[in-house]
Amino acid sequence: METNTILTQETDQITPHRDLRLPLDYLFDTCIYLYKFLRKSVDGARDNFQQVAANARYFHSMLVDEIKQLDRDGVKVMLDGRDQAQLLEELHYLEQQVPELDYRNTCYNTIFTSCTEWDYATSAYFIALPSDLDSWNDSDPLTHQLRFYFLCEHWNQEGAREDLPQHVHLFNHPGYSVKRPVKFFQEYGDYILRVLRMIKRGYSVKECDIPPLETFKILWSYDPNTSSNYLTKETIGPLVDKAIAYFVELSPPRWKKLGLTRNQSGAINQFLDIQDGEEASFCLHRYIHNSRYVSWRCGAHAHQFMNQKAMKELGVFVASHGGHVKMQQAVLRVELGSVIEANRFRTLLADVNFPFHCVYIKVNWTPSRTYAVKFFRGVALTGPVLLEIDGITLDIHPQGCEQYRTNLFVDIIETTGLQFITLLNYPGAQEQCIHIGKTCLQSTLSSLRSTYSWVDLRSDLKKFSKSLSTPKKASDCTKVAGELRDMLEKHGQRDVSLVTIYQESWNAVFDLEKGTCVEAYSQGEACPKGVLSSGSLHTLVVSLDDLQQGRDFFRTVQSNTMLQDLSVSHRGNDVLQYTDHIVRIWREFSCHFHLTLVDRMLDSQGRVFAELAINEGNGSLSGSDALTKQEAWNLPVDIEFVQWDCDHVFPPLSGNSASFLDMVTKQHPTTLTLLTLDVSHLSSAGLDSIENVLRRSNLEHLHIVCSSFDPSVSTSIAKVLGSIEWLTLKSLVLSGEYIDDWLQLWPLPTDARLLCLQIWGTLPEDQVLAHSSVLFLHHLMFASPLVDLHLRLIRPYGNCDWSLIVEALDFSLLETLDVGAFIAEQIILETHAMDLFVSKIEAVHKEKATAKLVLPTFTLDITILSKHSLVGVQKILSLCSVVDLYTMCPPFDPRLSDLIAQLLGSVQWSTLSSLGLFGENLDQWIHLFPPLTAPRLRSLIICGKVPVYQELSHSSVLFVQQLIRTGTLEELIIVNVQLQDKRDWALIFESIPLALKPEFDDSAYGQDISTTEEAEHFKSR
After folding, report:
1. Segment 144-199, tens digit of pLDDT
2. pLDDT confidence of 624, banded at 50, 70, 90?
3. Which has more pLDDT, 6 or 184?
4. What is the gyration radius of the CA atoms in the chain, in angstroms?
5. How far is it, in rounded angstroms, from Cα 575 to Cα 598?
6. What are the DSSP E strand ranges found in 85-162?
7. How many Å apart are CA 881 and CA 766, to the nearest integer?
């Protein structure tokens, strides 16, 4: 229920508002609700519990006052069938439960607040008892000597040994004398008092069990003969009672937080009288939980899950490989000299089933990057908190831009739960890198190991990483670097020189000696502007998903005048779009720097395709963005292409990119193999650069975009076309709206060896080719051993010109002929061209019966064909492999039935992938199809002609059913069709695969079949 809760501070007595009168039923319901909510809050934060308890007391007081006031007024109290006495009795019962709830909440926060901490120096459970109860005098402080005892910090876990008691208990140790008891009391009195009360009364939850003192289970494993005869069943009770009374009387300072902190745990040793050669953790064993929380247990509980046999084997292996195992501290050291030894060690470590706190590995061989990731991740998955590695070299990381994008040790930490990795003698001798979370600290390697708290350092580094996303300007970045240096000095890390912060989409390297950021990686513009524009970057790596981002990015680059290495990664393959930015940087920078370009596709790391050494800027160049040919070649070579592996150019060329590509091919003349030539934005100077590029390159694939051009550059375009090296060219694509204009400029090719020729018109209607253009194509096709020919949306001006095209083709080599529906129609209608086409196919078939010319698309429309043409089409269908066949089904002269049946019978079903039937006479055409021979259709379209639905007979339905059943359909469309017998829909429905989503229009259910059993079954499937 919802209540108007009045919040009050916790005090010994809450005085209710006497002037506030609330209905009795409201007060009672609210009071009951608060007591129930208090019970639910027992296993929760202390502050929340105390607030609910205070509210419950407040409303309880108001309710009692209201009942008494009504009694004084002579009003008989009756609520839900209960009188005044019954109400007060119920309230009294609930009130009596509060101390127990308060005790359990105190225990919960004492235990579970502590477990949120990480690496304790000792057990979080400890007590102090009088050293000698007989000599203890309450009135004489000199006799108040205390002895300190640790308890086994045991937590319940699945799979525990049944023969081993699963509860907290005292260690089998005589304890320690307490030095400076007054100071000790001030520091730990409140905490020890709470632990003593838990031992006295007991506390048990799912996670842990502290047995009541009266059961004496607390003394399990405690042997008076080996430890002391001081703690026995007879003495433990009085000692605990005396200790509780003593601490209560002195009233130690209350802790704001009930749980023990790491710092408080680490400071205990200074109050204990530890004998020479003995540590405070004399019989404590460090144990690592699955969540990497560290607890201290007795040996039996710490090792109860351990595979003892595997542990012996591991101990022998480690000892024989220059290492050791310290079980109490859960520390392991080993030296490995090969993959075989590493595999053996990893297997043994996993078999032991004991998570070590720290694993130290000396690598005495050079592992591959792939194996190192696998090996160290495998070690991390065995459960350690800390991992130290000595002997790793820089080769362990990827090269190029990828080394800045991520770090394999950061990835291991993020994916395994490992908290801390130290690389010793890395990246150089007497240096070390410390990985904490997503931060890497590089410093000199000191012989004295630092005693800093890595948990506290990790917490501060996380806060720093969050604050790093805020810098907006360079001065902010400098300020943040200073704060980072101060924070590390606070943790004793004064030798740290470089700090790398890894974020999801960016990272940055801070040089603490210079007090600024010197390296950065950014996914687009993810990196804070204050870092990118710091002006002090030496190395900058950027990954752009959209090259439009490059405009702002390169503007930022210009502010870093000390830049030495710049790497740009782009997802895609339009690499020359970089060139406008590169040329601009080249002009405006006055420093030497190295530029790396990376070409990557989706979900790939990419490859370095270019490394450029920009030797010096040239501020004197100004004006137009395009470099003229004279400027490019009269000046010294300012850009040195150290590496250039880009073999393709796709985007339209600009003046900058043409000049840039000209420089590239001058230094790497044979690299380019694929070029998309779009000169729509090029001047004569740019065309001259492309002429040079084509002369130097051994192109294999050329795509020319035939766009409009100014007549003044027609001579330059002709020179560009004449500079093509035909001997290496295998594929030529012509596309655009001005194909004929470009063909007329083209000199006749010499030594053409094309394997693929594609000509694609882009206008809505066919482009007309002049006779001279057809003669050029005839010459090109005749000289080339074409395997693939694709012609779309073009037609020759003269009707006989198709014969020239067919005549030039060598059908013994041609494998694929894709001419589209309209061009095929033109060839078929030109009798000489079709006869020549058929005769050439027949000649090839006689020589090699298995040779099949592939026709990707063929449209059959008898309305435009003569009887002679039908015979020719029949031969084409029988001798060629048609992939997609689209058949128009108009009415026809019955005298042509046999000829059409022969025509349809010549279809090669084994290669047919798609079949489309369109028109107003579907049923008659389907009847003419001969029996099917193993159809394997992937697409079937049956479309009647509107506005009248086309009816299919039962025999036609059986034909369609067989097509669906025997094919592997990915597409099924049936529209504008009805069946003579609506029950035949069941035959179609039951043959449709479950994975297929067919398309029907209303005609499928237009015969009132939507509620039939067949249709409902299909819908349910």
Report:
1. 888 999 999 988 888 888 889 999 999 888 888 998 888 898 899 999 999 999 99
2. very low
3. 184
4. 44
5. 9
6. 126-130, 146-152
7. 26
Q: Which residues of 539-562 are buried (b: 16+ CB within 10 A; e: fewer)?
A: bbbbbbeebebbeebbebbeebee
User: By the 8 A CB rule, do 356 and 384 touch?
Assistant: yes
**Which pLDDT value is given to residue 630?**
45
Of 183, 206, 208, 182, the residue nearest 195 (C-alpha): 208
Amino acid at 264: Q
Q: How far apart are CA 329 and CA 384, in angstroms?
A: 12
Q: Residues near 620 by Cβ (< 8 Å), separated by ≥ 6? A: none
614 and 597 in contact (C-beta within 8 Å)? no
Element (H, E) at 951: strand 950-952
Structure tokens at 542: 């950027």
**What does the pLDDT read at residue 603?**
54
Residue 576 has pLDDT above 70, yes or no: no
Q: How confident is the model at residue 968 (pLDDT cuts 50, 70, 90)?
A: confident
- Res. 1: pLDDT tops 50: no
Pairwise CA distance, residues 989 & 958, whole Å: 12
- Provide φ and ψ at 524, rounded to 5°: 65, -130
Specify whether the CB–CB gap between 699 and 720 falls below 8 A: no
Whose tokens are 């770090």? That residue is 407
- Tokens (6 digits) for 328: 């109490």
Give yes or no for a contact between 258 and 109, defined as CB atoms under 8 angstroms apart. yes
Cα angle 844, 837, 895; round to 5: 110
pTM for this predicted structure: 0.65
One-letter amino acid of 348: L
Residue with tokens 């609910």: 52
- Tokens 């591991």 — which residue? 314
Tokens 């040919």 map to which residue?
629
The residue written with tokens 């404590």 in the block is: 284
For 56-112, how does the pLDDT look when each residue is reduced to its tens digit (9 = 90+)?
999 999 988 888 888 888 888 888 888 888 888 998 999 999 999 999 999 999 888
State how far the Cα of 272 lies from the Cα of 179, in Å rounded to an integer: 6
The helix, strand and coil proportions of the chain, stated in percent and rounded to the nearest 5, come to 40, 20, 40
